[in-house]
Amino acid sequence: MIHRECGVLKTSYEADMALYPLPIARWAIAALAVVFFGIVPLGLGEYYLSVANLVWIAVIGALGLNILVGYTGQVSIGHGAFMSVGAYTAANLANRLGSPWPVNLLAGGIMAALIGVIVGIPSLRIKGLYLAIATLAGQFIIEWIINHVTFISGGVQASIEVARPRLGSMVLDTQLHMYYFLLFFVVLAILGTMNLVRSRVGRAFIAIRDQDIAAEIIGINIFRYKLLAFAISSFYAGVTGVVYTYFLGIANYEQFQLGVSVDYLAMIIIGGLGSVQGSIFGAFFITLLPIVIRRLMETFGGVFFEPQTVLNLIPNLRVMLFGALIIFFLIVEPEGLNRLWRNIRNYFRIWPFAY
Amino acid sequence: MSDDFGFLLLLLSNGIMIGLMYTLIALGFVLVYKATDAVNFAQGEFVMIAGLVVAGALDALHAPLWAAIVIGLGTMVGFGFLLERVMLRKLIGRPVIAVVMATIGLASILRGIGPSTLGAGTRTLPLPIPDEPFVLGPLFIPPIQLLGAAVSLIFLGGFGWFFLRSRNGIAMRAIADNQQVALAMGINVERYFGLAWAMTGVVSAIGGIIWGNLLGVDINLSLVGLKVFPVVILGGLDSIPGAIVGGLIVGLVENVTAGYVDPYVGGGTKDFAPYVLMILALMIRPYGIFGKKIIERI
Fold first, then answer.
1. Chain A window 109-138: which residues touch B at a Cβ cutoff of 8 Å?
2. Interface touch B104/A136, C-beta < 8 Å
3. Taking burial as the number of CB atoms within 10 A of a residue's CB, which of A219, A220, A228, B110 is the most buried?
4. Bond prior to A352 in cis (omega within 30° of 0)
5. Coil, helix or strand for A170?
6. B55-97 tens-digit pLDDT
7. How crowded is the C-beta side of A309, counted as CA atoms within 13 Å?
8. How far is it, in rounded angstroms, from Cα B125 to Cα B209?
9. A316–B233: do the CB atoms touch at under 8 Å?
10. What domains can you pick out in chain A, each with its CATH number?
């Protein structure tokens, strides 16, 4: 990620595909691990820890969506709904059967994967815009079902309280505990995605994205791989929903509406489609954006506006900036933050001899 | 005539009226898709902004109704041209998801700008028509629905003539058919793209006034845009007759299902049934009833 090499000197496919091309890359990862496992959680207060937790949740979801949209090229505007499927599955299991969280987590992921495959079935006949609209319909239909079937939603308000996860005899009830709980899944998600996209399956996904008819002709079973992409991606979404539910302590469909699907799409577009690093950057960016805006407006907004106007302006400013950033990145830097990062890195790769 | 039959007739007549009003909004979507191959996920927000501008002109400027409508139309036409120039032109030739996301971003911007500059409260948009519904046997027809349906039909006729007979319309069809050939024949493609977006602006402005009168003007007015997708998918994304047929089907289906199913499930079928219908349509006939079938080659 941060390394500089002095030339591409690879002599085998193994070397080309290595996750850590140089020893320094390994050191960089180790340093990042120290920062995020050691320094960050101990240095942050309760409030900023909760923000960090939201970022980790977003990272898992963004990675999953990027597998589908960025690597396989199938648009989905229904990921918020897949998350809610995971969330309600876990919440119902936890409350009705009292099952432990690892079971709920897996069940939530698998249930979301199943629903994701069903929503993904139209992708066999349609693509692009039509698929986007079909998944949008999936979002509304799932939302409606959860809201109207009391067996799933638990009746009024459609929200179910969930007990905090336990690790042995320890209840994970502080933000610091949640931080490590979530970070564990983030590491799993990152490793899983990085290894997936360099495997046979991942290369099939990329072939389908680049030209699906051509991919079919060279012998990739499109039917299988498109549905597999939907399944894996929705599994991630389901897991995101479950950990979010454990983080909030409550499963509520309002946390998974259309706006959430759009947020996640924005993350991977601003971060960079088809890139693991990009998903992480995007998740950071979109999650921190409203918090930064709020802080800035609370600090400096009073200089220009009345206090009441500032309060009214903050949510509107958030949606406006959000939209403007999506458009800005689409027009100016379609490959997102990941590309900007690479540009910076490439500049320093030959620095100080820039010729 | 039994009560049950009367109830069904009422639902059907309501469905036809509402369906034609959906057609009006769907027209905006179809026009842009037909001419420029761009999809507009912000159609509902266009309608909302138009409604807010007209309501704002009535309130804040104390303009008479005709002046407010002119201001609304002018704003939306200008907005259409500007949007094409600043945003859509830069996205020509990019993958579908780029345009989809850009218009979703645009929707987000409009949702922020609308309430913060033109007022957040719900306002009425009074039109000089009576409030009491016309009663025809079992039927109750609110005048606003009648007006909406009539305006919708007028616009359909107008656009039908435009695309079939007028020079500009024929140029636009040529562009829709094949951009490069149209360019080679000396058609100014970019100008017509701008024109298409401006026409969408006009349709949205009229839609904003009529729907604004029916629902009240606030940010939730943009939710009518969500009905556009079932309408255009059923009818075919690039077909004007398709917009009518799709609008009627969606209007009828949502009213009839809402009338008979809502009492059992506790409401909300109106927003749900069109999407189920749309999924079925996508599985059976993805290009819609009148849509142009795309043949893909490597």
1. 121-122, 125-126, 128-130, 132-134, 136-138
2. no
3. B110
4. yes
5. strand
6. 888 888 888 888 999 999 999 999 999 999 998 888 887 887 8
7. 10
8. 7
9. no
10. 45-350 (1.10.3470)
Residue to mutate among A123, A125, A130, with most B CBs inside 10 A, is A130
- Distances in Å between the alpha carbon of A12 and those of A21, A24, A198, A204? 12, 20, 15, 21
Segment A203-213, tens digit of pLDDT: 999 999 998 88
Under 8 Å CB pairs connecting chains A and B tally to 129
Question: Between B95, B108, B275, which is nearest A322 by CB?
Answer: B108
Chain A positions touching B94 (Cβ under 8 A) are: 330, 334
Closest-CA residue to A113 (of A91, A85, A137): A85
Residue B149: Cβ within 10 Å count = 22
Using only C-alpha atoms, chain B has a radius of gyration, in whole angstroms, of 19
Rounded CA-CA distance B22/B271 in Å is 13
Say whether A5 sits in a helix, a strand or coil: coil
- Gap between the Cα atoms of A20 and B183, Å rounded: 50
Buried b (16+ CB within 10 A) or exposed e, B66-83: eebbebbbebbbebbbeb
- Report the predicted TM-score, pTM, of the whole model to 2 decimal places: 0.89
- For the CA atoms of A144, A147, A152, A158, what is the dihedral angle to 10 degrees? 160
Do A137 and B229 count as a contact with CB atoms less than 8 A apart?
Answer: yes
**A159-161 and A166-167 beta bridge pairing:** unpaired
